[in-house]
Structure to design on (122 residues):
């Protein structure tokens, strides 16, 4: 079973965290053919943490977990922290394929998204 873990930074502001959870729910509705299960997790300041999110995927039957960093830039969190957490998670779940996708800002679709969003200005 393929699962997707949408990973955001996390915020002290609960509404921001809730937006990420809602986004994960919307993703689940739109790509259920590719990912049977989609969860959200947070790097810090909110729960579930990334290790908790990965465990939840595994508990739900994941054979593969794709960690999708919901970050715009390749800062320390994207380059070091998230991959480091994934390396540790692989030790706890050796029978599950856990991989990290490119962060959102690295997507080739980002230019189209920026232009489209700018065109909505009133």
């Amino acid at each position: 079973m393929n699962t997707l873990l949408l990973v955001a930074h996390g915020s002290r502001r609960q509404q921001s965290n809730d937006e990420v959870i809602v986004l994960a729910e919307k993703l689940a509705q739109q790509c259920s053919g590719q990912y049977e299960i989609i969860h959200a997790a947070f790097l810090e300041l909110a729960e579930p943490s990334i290790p908790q999110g990965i465990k939840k995927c595994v508990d739900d039957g994941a054979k593969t977990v794709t960690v999708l960093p919901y970050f715009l830039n390749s800062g320390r969190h994207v380059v070091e922290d998230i991959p480091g957490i994934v390396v540790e998670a692989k030790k706890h779940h050796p029978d599950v394929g856990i991989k990290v996708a490119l962060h959102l800002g690295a997507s080739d679709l980002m230019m189209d998204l920026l232009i489209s969003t700018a065109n909505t200005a009133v």
About this structure: The mean pLDDT is 97. Residues 8 and 70 are 5 Å apart (CA to CA). The helical segments are 14-30, 50-59, 76-92, 110-118. The first strand starts at residue 2 and ends at 8.
